[in-house]
Design brief:
It is built from nine helices and two strands; from the N terminus they run H-H-H-H-H-H-E-E-H-H-H. The chain is mainly α. The protein is elongated and about 75 Å long.
Length: 198
């Protein structure tokens, strides 16, 4: 049985090549693209979920604010617990909305250096900004979880049955979603903040 041209080429590459080249041939580009595509799909789902939670928390805060106004000024029986829940909702809204801002490149930035840089230098700046953002988010996750653990023993004024743990938990949860958004923006850059700048 004679070997076909594809078999001959593969045998020539494997017999003649260095080990590093063989590894590069075996770890082909389509696998890298498939991994990137899979990660971006997971990132899109996670960022969409975080944004949906942020929108829901905004709606909850608005409804509770309206309820508080009605109870205070119309019924004249203020509900103190609504103020605390509005605060909780706004904390969760902010920390669950941040991942979408990271992913879309919509965080406020000083972009003069980026605009004046050649394309290769821009990619270096992307990496530096992403590493700085990941460092900041890692600190938020670490200390946020520490605060949440300490907050277990604290109760909320007006809602003694609820622990402050649930308010502080927004920091590490939002931080984890932010990590996914930052990495997603590094892999597939978007420049919403630069595009909308005047």
């Amino acid at each position: 049985m004679t070997a076909g041209p594809a078999t001959t080429t593969t045998n020539a590459v494997l017999s003649d090549a260095r080990p590093a080249r063989v590894v590069r041939v075996l770890l082909s580009i389509p696998n890298e693209k498939r991994m990137k595509k899979t990660f971006l799909e997971v990132e899109r789902f996670c960022t969409g979920f975080a944004m949906a939670v942020a929108c829901a928390m905004l709606a909850v805060a608005a409804c509770l604010g309206l309820f508080q106004i009605i109870m205070r000024f119309i019924v004249e029986a203020p509900a103190e617990w609504t103020e605390v829940l509005i605060r909780f909702s706004l904390i969760w809204m902010v920390f669950m909305g941040i991942p979408a801002a990271f992913r879309r490149g919509a965080m406020v930035s000083v972009d003069v250096l980026y605009r004046w840089s050649p394309p290769k230098m821009r990619r270096v700046l992307d990496w530096l900004v992403s590493l700085a953002a990941l460092t900041l988010v890692a600190v938020i996750i670490w200390w946020g979880w520490d605060y949440a653990q300490r907050g277990r023993v604290q109760t909320v004024i007006g809602l003694e049955g609820i622990s402050m743990f649930w308010a502080y938990l927004a920091l590490p949860v939002g931080g984890v979603f932010s990590v996914i958004g930052i990495v997603g923006n590094l892999i597939d850059p978007q420049r919403m903040e630069l595009e909308t700048a005047q």
